[in-house]
Amino acid sequence: MFDIQEELKKLPAKPGVYLMHNKQGEIIYVGKAIKLCNRVRQYFQGSRNLSTKIAHMVSHIDYFEYIITDSELEALVLENNLIKQHHPKYNTMLKDDKTYPYIKVTLKEDFPRLMLARKMKQDGSKYFGPYKSGGAVRDTMELLRKIFKIRTCNRNLPRDIGKDRPCLYYQIKQCNAPCQGYISKEDYGKSMDQVVDFLKGNHKPVVEMLTEKMMEASEDLNFELAAEYRDLLKSVNDIGLTQKINSNKGFENRDIIASAFDKKDAVISVFFVRDGKLLGREHFHMTREEEENQAELIGAFAKQFYAGTPYLPEEIFLECEMEEQEWLEKMLSERRGAKVHIRVPERGDKYRMVALAKENAENVLRQDRERIKREEQRTIGAVHEIEDLLGLDNLKRMEAFDISNISGFQTVASMVVFEDGKPRNRDYRKFRLKTVTGPDDYKSMEEVLTRRLLHGKKEQEELMTQNKDIQYGSFTKFPDLLLMDGGKGQVNVALKVLESLKIHIPVCGMVKDDNHRTRGLYYNNEEIFFPKHSEAFMLVTRIQDEAHRFAIEYHRSLRTKGQVYSILDDIKGVGPKTRRALMKHFKEIGHIKDATIDELMKVPGMKQNIAEGIYIFFNESKEEI
Question: 479: which DSSP letter?
Fold first, then answer.
């Protein structure tokens, strides 16, 4: 029994992250603290004025856990990662999980390269950006490679010089082939210095060089070459035109942040200024509580965004003071290794830029309001329709299963997960059948459901022991509804498994018509039909199609890899040679499953330890089921 008051006394006076759980073991809130003992106790002090949202959250807390960190910065990063991983109900969530593309120059290499990067590392490389998209990064890198003939390969130079023939880029005159020693390290370095200069925004030398070469080619009547230089020149000018807003100083790196919101949704607009030039802007959607004010909203966004972005500017401009502004400024400065200033401009050009960002946020919110409503109707709205049809409450997580095989050969299964009517791809799982021989969909489904639910029970037991080292898996949380690809037969298989494991979960069969199209749901021994143009019908169809697609793609991938007897490939020590010998000796996979160790030892070339491993693999699998 978790005694909250007793556990509060044990909290350390150290930085860290705390996780609040409800009675179902779900993480409903994640927070970070400079001193855990002070921060966590505040939630349970009756005299403390809590907001309606936090008071409601506290009423659902059954127990909490915490993770100690070495620093406040580590706590900030961990808090952000845990929020993204668990999507707690009471955290203000940044809907967009974006990472921004940067151009990475690998300066520590003897012959540096240009690479697209989405994370900044302390690896001695130089990073430029952020750019508005991966496409913009690739276009810029392609342009620079054409102009300065920078290598694209990942060969280890100078170690591998001369080991292989030059690549196609050398043949088409877009690389000087340092891999062949055709250019010295010093000359290559000069080209790379020009690349870095260009990425810093100094385009003038490149423009002058290309213009001069274009004119020379034209005077020599080499119009084809002149046209190439003309196109390169146009590309350089296009990149320059995207950087329209220049500051007076010309060298600032800053982000400008503003917001717009209504009762449920918010849009945050961020302008990126690098070296005094506007490189781009991005918009982020967030969920919000009606009582949440602007300062809380901006604070929640800034903590999540700057914990994940690889680049930190010198200045961050906001439209209002935010929560924990001094603390965040300190943390970002520590992470950047230089001072980061968070300011609220009140007049002049800086104020006008914040106002421009706010205007953009308001426009996006207006444009997206209808789209958001439509998206909610096809997701949350569809879930509510299913609740009404089945007579269920609080339906959030649905799991659907499908079996795929060819005449019972190489049977696989898929598990797809939908939460609030949206696919939760990271919780999808694939299964290769271990105990079923031949085309038996019912036995296959029984094995898959048993494995999935047993795995979930094991994770839940570990969770209840408060083992801080466990990794919360996709099986920990049980679904609110199980969806079988089929009718009465598949539903009865699921109910049999649930009864044997003493687990109570509603089960539906997704029934198809003669044309293999979704027709209705089989639930509580009757078929339930719904209008074909209803949101519920379309959501069930999407779930059924997704489960089928995921299973088919997995089966196809195994066939493509040539894994003829894939179940044998799961056994340690069994390679292609042993696999062929087993199939030649036993003829059928089922005979291998039923063989004793002595019988397995009769296979030519079989070793004792491998025979024992095969026997244990199949017999332990049988015991699970």
Answer: P
| Across 77-86, 555-564, 611-620, least confident range | 555-564
The tens digit of pLDDT for each residue in 256-269 reads 999 988 877 788 88
Q: According to CATH, where is 3.30.420.340 located in the chain?
A: 397-560
Separation CA 382–CA 420 (nearest Å)? 9
Superfamily name and number for 397-560 = UvrC, RNAse H endonuclease domain (3.30.420.340)
How high does pLDDT run on average in the chain?
81
Q: What's the CA angle centered on 571, arms 570 and 572, to 5 degrees?
A: 115
Assigned fold of 4-86: GIY-YIG endonuclease (3.40.1440)
Neighbours of 68 (CB within 10 A): 14
Q: Are strands 507-512 and 518-523 parallel, antiparallel or unpaired?
A: antiparallel
- Helix, strand or coil, per DSSP, at residue 423: strand
Helix (H), strand (E) at residue 65: strand 63-68
| Beta strands, E only, 131-276 | 254-261, 265-274
Structure-derived torsion over alpha carbons of residues 208, 210, 214, 220, reported in degrees to the nearest 10: 90
Cβ–Cβ < 8 Å for 64, 7 = yes
pTM over 0.85: no
Cβ atoms of 283 and 298 closer than 8 Å = no
- Residue 60's contacts (CB-CB under 8 Å, 6 or more residues apart) are 22, 23, 28
The pLDDT of residue 426: 84
Q: Return residue ranges of the chain for CATH 1.10.150.20.
A: 566-624
CA distance 185 to 342: 42
What pLDDT sits at residue 470? Answer: 44
Q: For tokens 């109910």, name the residue.
A: 495
Q: pLDDT of 206-221, one tens digit each? A: 888 888 888 888 888 8
Distance CA 302, CA 283 (A): 13
What is the per-residue pLDDT for 160? 84
For 562-596, letters b (16+ CB in 10 Å) and e give ebebbbbeebeebeeebbeebbebbeebeebbebe
- Among left, alpha and beta (phi > 0; psi -120 to 50; other), residue 367 is alpha
Angle formed by the axes of helices 134-148 and 185-199, nearest 10°: 140
- pLDDT category, 509, cuts 50, 70, 90? very high
Single out the residue of 124, 275, 254 nearest to residue 200, CA to CA: 275
Structure-block tokens of residue 175: 């690389």
Can you list the positions of beta strands (E) in 371-480? 397-406, 409-419, 422-423, 429-432
* CATH 1.10.10 describes domain 254-367: no
Where helices occur in 424-471 by DSSP H, the ranges are: 441-464
Phi-psi region of 12 (alpha: psi -120 to 50; beta: other; left: phi over 0): beta
Task: Give the mean model confidence (pLDDT) for residues 484-493.
Answer: 89
Domain 566-624, what fold? Answer: DNA polymerase; domain 1 (1.10.150)
E strand or H helix that includes residue 528: strand 526-529
